[in-house]
Amino acid sequence: MKKSVYIINKIKLLPKNPGVYFFKDREGNYLYIGKAKFLNIRVRSYFQKNNNLSLKILSMLNRAIDFEWIVTSSEIEALLTEANLIKEHDPYYNVLLRDDKTFPYIRITNENYPRVFITRKLLNDGSKYFGPYTDVSQLRLILKVLHKVFSIRSCDFNIDKNTILKKKNSICLDYHIDKCDGPCEGLIKEDEYNDIIKNVIFFLNGNIRRINEKISDKMNLASKLMEYKKAAKYRDQILTITDFSKKQGRAVATFDNKDIISISSNNNKACGVVIRIRDGRIYGREKIILKGVKDEKKSKLISDFIRQFYLVTHFIPREIIISEKPDFFNVIKLWLEKKRNNKIKITIPLKGEKLRLLKMSQQNADLILQQEILKKNLRKELPPSMNNQLKEDLNLLTPPRRIEAFDISNIQGKEAVGSMITFVDGKPKKKDYRKFTINTVKGINDFEMIREVVLRRYKRLKQENGILPDLIIIDGGKGQLNMGFSALKELGLSYIPIASIAKRLEEVFLPGIQEPQNIPKHSSGLILIRRVRDEAHRFAISFHRKKFNKNSIKSIFDNIKGFGPKTKIKLYKKFSNISNISNSDPIVIKQELSINLNLAMKIVEIAKKNTTNN
User: Does the predicted model carry a pTM greater than 0.70?
Assistant: First the structure.
């Protein structure tokens, strides 16, 4: 970012308040979002000389052209605003929880008779969210236990006193098999139903003992009243909850709720692990990959992770165990306490049981990160399934990992252009796209145009020892294919596989074979060919439009020296047509276009000649 007069004056306007600042690029995209106790000091530090900024921040400043800020009432509010903005705008240079927007949560709706279900969409409507859960199988097990133990409704009816009185809804099968108490017909009071929801919240928070005590009281009361069927139901609930609790395995001797957070990083990759301990048992392990971590300190990673992980979730444990003090420690602690409505402990253990738990968590994070790196390397080495299918569809020797495709665009042979696009492992590689202006072919002859473009492309690649493709796709039928193949033969490159796809019936042709290939319409290989063809067509059309529009701005004034295209456009906007220009006073044209009088006189003279000739 250049320290222009505009930026210097803007820096002077920065307030001394706490708040959030963000840098933007030329398109208005958010590059980096940060928080500050004093906005003026923090933002000014980015523009000071000899400031030890990381390579990542220097790269960000090179792309940024402007910055903005939001003033907040406190540092805690700034912390929360920053986390929300990061989640909303996904800035390139911030540390982000990868795909955190798609992590599943358990949602308890804000209704008279709340519903409980899995969701990936977070709404600010007063609902309670528990999560995020990265182990979906564990999540589904929890939900299965919830519905087995608690009589919570599975329907999506809007239930209130009015709908019950008017009998708008009726009980379903769940009521008849004792899975629901029939709130839709008012068969259970709202207070009683909400007592069930409270137990659900206790369960999701890991307060198993408290639930068992409450259900035991209900069981004993039902037994005294000789309501044995109801007592048996409560007994089964206790057994199910106890069985679930035993499966979690005891981790610590105490019954406190705590989260153990560990982060493992390697260059630009990092993994965060949260081990949830509820009532002394391991309740779950969440693994989250972080991106944008290059050059970041561990304290910054922990700080960003805590803020984003606990931003949405309803439950904050009594204690959080971490390996080192995070940035903005005091502010984060205050924010979490405010969110929990109670005191919390953030512990950095040096010995004992908590250190053992932290080491276990760290080991999990290290192993998961290693697995992610191995997976990524494997993905680089192995071709995608679409490319493997294309190999089978076209009877190729190897999967075509690098595909180049050609298309021609022209209007009745005029302004003819060619395009070449590149796909690598099923994805466009736009830096390898090429444009061609047709030089040797006159008139309407798409076949010869394809030949020229293919010949020019691979003649140059041979001269420069460039990377040759594994497959060439031509947008067209057998004629275009044969011309492309003849260009390859001339260059001694006929061994490169080449195919064409005709627009009308989506038929794929190979050289020397009269009939189209018998490829199933649902084949992923054919889908890839279409995708490549469509991208080549789009690229050719966009290039042709630009070229045509540029060349179409021609007029009788083109030979006047010092009369550029912008002024020409301005002339037509002001005077509409040649007739109006020829009848205008040169002095008026001079004033309207801010040009000299001699140039204005020349314009009027040429306009009058053109009007007389016509």
Answer: no
